[in-house]
């Protein structure tokens, strides 16, 4: 007797076999060079599939691979593209005469030049204009949905809706429209869920055509709703009237949105037009909580507005109410504390320094959060002129030719890391003349690390330095203090030039390049290294190359090995490289082919050539021992005891 369960299992088996057969069938279509299909019929080209459609009966075309296409022209057609996980990339799209064009399933239906929709409906994923054209998307008496962005570089509107159209853009509209607005809405309705950005900067009016150049949204007898921000030379143009963001109506008919309205009566035609725009009410991003009495307690929709409201150097506090990413900013003669209030403040962008502080400005922060300056093609933070200062939590530059941090005659404190990643020619931190930079974190650079040049220039890094080029450089009486390690993957570890110039490294100096030098001191400069030196070349002092064993005795600084040419000096901590000289207790010398060693410890004694090759080893008891070393050639040798001492002696 057949059970119910066995019947179900049998049906499942049949269904699995069917699904497998269909999968194999579709795969075989693709393998046979078919790019798409209608029903079970495969087509070698999309042109072939479209040519098979001869009327407006609804038809679904399923993609079997990515398809680039020069241009669609749909006249009275009803077609759905099943993207099936693939991309349909079309240069031009024309849809007319009652056509309906749609898509389903994941993938992209992207237009790369323009779309013209008339008396029809259409849905696609986005428009990204690759070449110059008049307008991006033009809709006439049509319903259009764009599920992504509309991005154009044309002279005219990115999105133009006329004659009763209804258009929805789920993303943003971005353009550089020199005539009119990025979005134009005449006798239609438009909704943009993202931002509307027109980067054209001319602030003028063509009086003949009533076109406001560089407008964000232009409405004439229509309705536009914008959920994001509008960034443009002219915020809105309603009818022929330019509207600023502050020109909103006292009461909005759409909750959560600022309403803008303008009516226009034409004497010539005797008719009136009514233009509406709703822009989502922006949330306040910051508040002035201290400063001029008339400003305290005021909320601002942008940080730029708050900064513009502060018109003198009265100590002011701007409290963040959300995370803020601001465009490159110049602050002149202001005293401002940013109360981070648990949020992040980032000055960033391209084209100029991310944050510039000048002429006595004092910029600081308080509270939890981060305050950073990040530039993509320029300096991250620049503080210029004596008396100016800036304290923040991090600086980054991704420029291939600009330094991350620059200070001339001011003060900078970075309570975090400094990073320069643009290329080999960059410098992470630069201080020049009467300025002070403190980095309470690490410095990382794809070029050089830090440089203090000129009288009064000083840099303190309370962390490590990692660079491709020189790790640290000081000149002209500049001062550098580094509490961590200095590492260069290709060049020198530490360089110092000029009398009065000092560099102190509390960690190790590592220079890994094939011709790198651990430290260089010239023309009276002084370098102190508390850790070890690991480099291809140990030191250069003046014009003299120094090995580890080429120290001067007696030392000029207790507890350190001294390397000097009589003018410039490098001091390396005694014992930092695993060696220490105990001059009062150790006696070692060659005599008549024997090595005489007198040390208080029982230990192993090793003899090295001046190039570091071990040539002899023996053990001794505590006290004095004469060791036969064989026929060693005459010259200098390094003698090392396992108790931790080292001597350089002549044979």
Can I get a quick summary?
The chain is built from three helices and 68 strands.
How many helices?
Answer: 3
Rg, please? 37 Å
Number of domains: 3
Q: What is the global morphology?
A: elongated
The major pleated sheet works out as: 23 strands, mixed
Mean pLDDT, as a whole number?
Answer: 88
State the end-to-end distance.
107 Å
Number of strands: 68
Helix content: under 10%
Which structural class matches the secondary elements?
mainly beta
Content of β-strand:
over 45%
Low-confidence stretches: 1-29, 205-210, 578-584
What are the main properties of this structure?
651 residues, mainly beta, Immunoglobulin-like, 3 domains, elongated
Give structural notes.
The longest helix is centred in the N-terminal third of the chain and has 28 residues. The N terminus is likely disordered. With 651 residues, the protein is mainly beta. It has a 23-stranded mixed β-sheet that branches. It has three domains: 156 residues, no CATH class; 251 residues; 64 residues, Sandwich (Immunoglobulin-like), CATH 2.60.40.3080. The chain is elongated and about 120 Å long. It is built from three helices and 68 strands. It is 6% helix and 51% strand.
List the helices and strands and how they pair.
Layout lengths: L3 H28 L4 E3 L2 E3 L2 H6 L7 E5 L3 E9 L2 E5 L4 E10 L3 E5 L3 E11 L2 E4 L1 E3 L8 E4 L2 E4 L3 E2 L7 E4 L3 E4 L3 E3 L5 E6 L2 E4 L3 E3 L6 E2 L4 E2 L2 E6 L2 E4 L3 E2 L2 E5 L2 E3 L13 E10 L4 E10 L5 E5 L8 E2 L2 H7 L6 E5 L3 E3 L2 E4 L2 E5 L4 E6 L5 E4 L3 E5 L3 E6 L5 E12 L1 E4 L7 E10 L3 E3 L6 E6 L2 E5 L3 E3 L2 E6 L3 E5 L3 E3 L4 E4 L3 E4 L3 E3 L5 E4 L4 E4 L3 E3 L5 E6 L3 E4 L3 E3 L1 E5 L2 E3 L13 E5 L4 E5 L13 E5 L2 E6 L3 E7 L4 E7 L2 E6 L7 E6 L4 E5 L1
Parallel strand pairs: 3-5, 4-6, 5-7, 6-8, 7-9, 8-10, 8-11, 9-12, 10-13, 11-14, 12-15, 13-16, 14-17, 15-18, 16-19, 17-22, 18-23, 19-24, 22-25, 23-28, 31-34, 32-35, 33-36, 34-37, 35-38, 36-39, 37-39, 38-40, 39-41, 40-42, 41-43, 41-44, 42-45, 43-46, 44-47, 45-48, 46-49, 47-50, 48-51, 49-52, ...
Antiparallel strand pairs: 1-2, 1-3, 20-21, 25-26, 27-28, 29-30, 29-31, 58-59, 60-61, 62-63, 63-66, 64-65, 64-67, 67-68
């Amino acid at each position: 007797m057949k059970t119910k369960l066995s019947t179900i299992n049998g049906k499942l088996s049949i269904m699995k076999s069917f699904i497998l057969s269909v999968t194999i069938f579709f795969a075989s279509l693709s393998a046979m060079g078919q790019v798409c299909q209608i029903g079970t019929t495969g087509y070698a080209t999309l042109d072939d599939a479209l040519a098979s459609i001869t009327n407006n009966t609804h038809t679904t075309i399923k993609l079997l691979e990515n398809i680039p296409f020069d241009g669609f022209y749909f006249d009275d057609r009803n077609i759905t593209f099943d993207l099936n996980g693939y991309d349909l990339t079309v240069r031009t799209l024309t849809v007319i005469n009652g056509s309906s064009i749609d898509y389903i399933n994941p993938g992209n239906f992207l237009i790369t030049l323009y779309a013209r929709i008339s008396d029809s409906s259409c849905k696609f994923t986005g428009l990204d204009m690759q070449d110059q054209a008049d307008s991006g998307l033009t809709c006439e008496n049509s319903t259009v949905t764009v599920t992504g962005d509309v991005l154009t570089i044309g002279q005219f509107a990115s999105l133009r809706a006329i004659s009763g159209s209804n258009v929805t853009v789920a993303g943003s509209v971005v353009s550089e429209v020199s005539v009119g607005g990025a979005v134009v809405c005449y006798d239609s309705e438009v909704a943009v869920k993202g931002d509307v950005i027109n980067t054209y900067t001319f602030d003028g009016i063509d009086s003949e055509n009533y076109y406001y150049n560089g407008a964000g949204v232009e409405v004439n007898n229509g309705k536009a709703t914008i959920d994001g921000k509008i960034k443009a030379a002219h915020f809105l143009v309603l009818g022929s009237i330019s509207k600023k963001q502050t020109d909103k109506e006292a009461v909005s008919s759409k909750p959560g949105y600022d309403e803008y309205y303008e009516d226009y009566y034409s004497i010539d035609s005797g008719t009136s037009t009514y233009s509406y725009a709703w822009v989502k009410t922006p949330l306040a991003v910051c508040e002035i909580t201290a400063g001029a009495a008339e400003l305290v307690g005021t909320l601002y929709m942008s940080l730029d507005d708050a900064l513009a409201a502060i018109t003198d150097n009265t100590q002011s506090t701007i409290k963040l109410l959300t995370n803020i990413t601001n465009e490159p900013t110049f602050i002149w003669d202001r005293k401002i504390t940013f109360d981070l209030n648990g949020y992040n403040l980032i000055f960033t962008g391209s084209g100029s320094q991310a944050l510039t502080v000048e002429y006595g400005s004092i910029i600081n922060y308080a509270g939890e959060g981060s305050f950073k300056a990040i530039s993509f093609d320029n300096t991250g933070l620049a503080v210029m002129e004596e008396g100016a200062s800036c304290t923040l939590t991090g600086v980054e530059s991704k420029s291939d030719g600009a330094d991350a941090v620059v200070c001339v005659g001011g003060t900078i404190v970075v309570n975090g890391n400094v990073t320069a990643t643009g290329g080999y020619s960059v410098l992470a931190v630069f201080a020049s003349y009467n300025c002070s930079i403190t980095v309470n974190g690490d410095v990382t650079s794809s070029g050089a690390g830090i440089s203090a040049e000129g009288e009064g220039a000083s840099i303190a890094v309370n962390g490590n330095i990692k660079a491709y080029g020189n790790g640290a450089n000081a000149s002209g009486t500049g001062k550098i203090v580094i509490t961590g390690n200095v590492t260069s993957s290709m060049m020198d570890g530490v360089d110092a030039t000029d009398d009065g110039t000092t560099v102190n490294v509390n960690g190790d100096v590592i220079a890994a390049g094939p011709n790198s030098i651990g430290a260089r001191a010239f023309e009276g400069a002084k370098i102190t290294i508390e850790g070890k030196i690991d480099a291809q070349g140990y030191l250069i002092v003046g014009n003299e190359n120094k090995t580890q064993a080429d120290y001067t005795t007696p030392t000029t600084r207790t507890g350190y090995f001294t390397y000097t040419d009589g003018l410039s000096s490098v001091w390396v901590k005694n014992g930092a490289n695993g060696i220490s000289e105990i001059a009062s207790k150790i006696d070692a010398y060659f005599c008549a082919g024997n090595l005489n060693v007198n040390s208080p410890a029982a230990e192993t004694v090793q003899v090295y050539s001046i190039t570091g090759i071990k040539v002899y080893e023996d053990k001794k008891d505590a006290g004095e021992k004469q060791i036969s070393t064989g026929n060693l050639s005459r010259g200098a040798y390094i003698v090392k005891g396992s108790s931790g001492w080292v001597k350089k002696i002549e044979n």
